[in-house]
Amino acid sequence: MKELIIKYRKPIVITLGVTLLNILFGFDARFTIINLLWLLV
Prior knowledge:
85% of the residues lie in helices and 0% in strands. By secondary structure, it is mainly α. Helix 2 (9-25) runs antiparallel to helix 3 (29-40). The model has no long low-confidence stretch (mean pLDDT 77).
């Protein structure tokens, strides 16, 4: 389990950050999609 978290740490942190920003500033679909696309690059 720990290896899995270390391997995918960056995407997990980015996803949590995007979610947190959406909660703080109101949901912005375009912003979310752009950030999720960054994860796939």
